[in-house]
Each structure stands twice: as structure tokens, then as C-alpha cells.
Amino acid sequence: MTMGGVVTDGEDALLRVDGLSTVIGNVRRPQTILEDVSFAVAPGEVLGVVGESGSGKSMLALTLMNLLPRPIRRTAGRIALGGTDLTGLSDRAWRDYRGRDMAMIFQEPMTSLNPVMRIGRQIMEVLVRRRGMSGRAAEQEAIRLLERVEISSPRERIRAYPHELSGGMRQRAMIAIALAANARLLIADEPTTALDVTIQAQILDLLRQLQAEMGMALILITHDLGVVAEMAHRVMVLYAGRVAELAPVEDTFYQPRHPYTRALLDSIPSVEARRERLATIEGSVPVAGAMPPGCRFAPRCPLAREACTQAPPPVMPVGDGHGVACIAPFGYELPEGVARRGAA
């Protein structure tokens, strides 16, 4: 598959997304949310998806899972999982893949878990429906899954309701539900946002360990570029519903080619570089229905020129596995005294 001229994967890709677009509103006045999003994820690969709030990250996850709330709808594009074109399936057929072959960890477990159903029952529901287990076998497997996600006293916890668990335990329970059907693709939408720093680290370590053990493809949506640097193999930068840059993680941090990617990196606080004020990106992400006609980032870009306002630039290759949607992508020099990771 190609993405605006960029070869994004080999023949072994598990997930292929090509030209995905979603809108909100009626047919006469649709408002774009995602536009022409293309990428691929291989088995065992971690793809980090980053961008400001309003860039379309969570909407991408919901589109991939076919969980779009009305009146949002997919208008174009292809989603293929393991060679099967899911976009050509009925909603009922898509449900057979959701939870079995692809699973999602939602941002806020308290609103995603059923508050009146015990944790064990919610895990067992997946095991019975997706793996055909009986009640007793499902209960034993639910206990094993809680042990696997490092919940203490799992035999007691399966009888707990969500409100009886801490935030970290609820997120671990969500991970157990996602793992219950042995999904090949896991989408984690800001899985640590509502947790304190210590618990965040534990959850991320757990995800990294489970992903490596099971060989799952993982799409990790996050605001935290530090998390992406540690966990991801490749990074997709979204801005206003379009792909701004897609690159190996090393290139993203040490050779960003899009002004938006560079602005995100420059805004990260540093203990080494002392500044009177933190760097910020002037302006805000445009909302659906108010997208600029050209490059979505042009109104905020200090390097914008007249040509940037004409039409959205496609993602074009600028290096090995590195694509950028900019009419004049630039190089990036490391600050003095900072070495590339892995360098002697």
C-alpha cells in the first residue's frame, strides 16, 4: 500500500488503512473530522499516534472499531485487517471481528465498564461469546487474566464492582477484557490519562510486556511524547484530522520534517535548556466545519507561504519510511551537546 507516494508497509501488515475519511452532520452540509488518513501496522509493531486535543486521535480509534456515534459517519477509505476488507462488511459481520481480532482500551475505564456488573462477569462475557468457554472455565480464565494484568487477590476481585476498584485497577481490568479474546490488534486510547504518574508507569510497563509476549500490533494514542519515545516503533502525527507526518520513532524525535512535529517537540519542557517561558504553539486546532482550505496547520505555521493556503498537501516521501505532508519539508539539527540515541 502507498500513502501519497510513501510505501507505508510490507506485505506482512496486519492492519492497512487507506484514504480514511469521516464527517459529522447531514449529507448536504457534512463537516470533516478525518480526511484521507492512511497507514499500516505490522504484527508486533507499536504505532504511536500523537497530536493536540481535537486532532482526531480518538475519532480515528472509534472509526477503526466501527463505534462511531451518530451523526458521525465514515465516508471514504478502506480498513483491512489480516487481508479482510472490513469496510465492505455489514455492522453485524464487523462485530464478529471487534473484540475477537481487534480490541480497544478506552480512555476512562469508569465510564467504559458496566457499573452494575461485576468485573469477573464482564471478562467472562467476552470469554463465553468469543472463545466459546463454559461458565466454570470462563471464571478460571478470568482469574488468570486478572493475575496476568497484575491485579492482587484476583479470586476476590472478580466479584468486585467497578466502583470498588481504584483507577489503576479499573484500567487493568479494562486491559484484561481487551486481552480476553486474544486479539491480534489492540488500540489503546490514552490509557493512562486519568492515572497518577506512578500508576501510569506501571500500566505502560504492563502494556509493553503483554504486547511483546503476545506479538500483538498496538496502536497507542497519547499526548505524552515521552511515552511514544519509549514504546513506539513508528509515530503518526495527526493535525486537524489529517496526517502531518509518519516516520520511524528515531526520525520523529531527531529529524522531524513537518513544522507541526517540530513545534510539538519544542514545547516539551527540558531540564537542560533553561527558558524564561515554555515554548507554545500560537492559535488552536481548527474545529470541524472551519477547516482552512490549504494546509490545516498553515494559519499557525511560522513558515507558511501563499502556496500553503491553496490545497492540503499529500503525504510525500522524504526518507526511508518517512513521509510528511508539507510543500517544503525541512531538516532538523540537534541542539548542541545532544546526541542521537544509540550514538557512541
Q: List the total number of helices.
A: 11
Domain count:
2
Percent of residues in β-strands: 15-25%
Give a short account of the largest sheet: 8 strands, mixed
Task: Count the beta strands.
Answer: 14
CATH class of the largest domain: Alpha Beta
User: What class do helices, strands and sheet pairing give?
Assistant: alpha/beta
Write out the strand line-up for the largest beta sheet, numbering strands in chain order: 8-9-10-5-11-12-14-13
Shape: globular
Provide the succession of SSEs: EEEEEHEEHEHHHHHEHEHEEHHEE
What is the annotated CATH architecture of the largest domain? 3-Layer(aba) Sandwich
Rg to the nearest angstrom?
21 Å
Mean pLDDT: 87
Looking at this structure, what is the CATH superfamily of the largest domain? Answer: P-loop containing nucleotide triphosphate hydrolases
Helix content: 25-40%
Q: Low-confidence parts lasting 5 or more residues at pLDDT below 50?
A: 1-9, 337-344
CATH topology of the largest domain: Rossmann fold
Distance between the termini: 36 Å
Describe the structure.
- This protein is α/β, with parallel strands linked by helices.
- It is built from eleven helices and 14 strands.
- It has two domains: 230 residues, 3-Layer(aba) Sandwich (Rossmann fold), CATH 3.40.50.300; 68 residues, no CATH class.
- 30% of the residues lie in helices and 22% in strands.
- The protein has an eight-stranded mixed beta sheet with strand order 8-9-10-5-11-12-14-13, sandwiched between helices. The protein has a four-stranded antiparallel beta sheet with strand order 4-3-6-7, with helices on one face.
- The longest helix has 18 residues.
- The N terminus and C terminus are likely disordered.
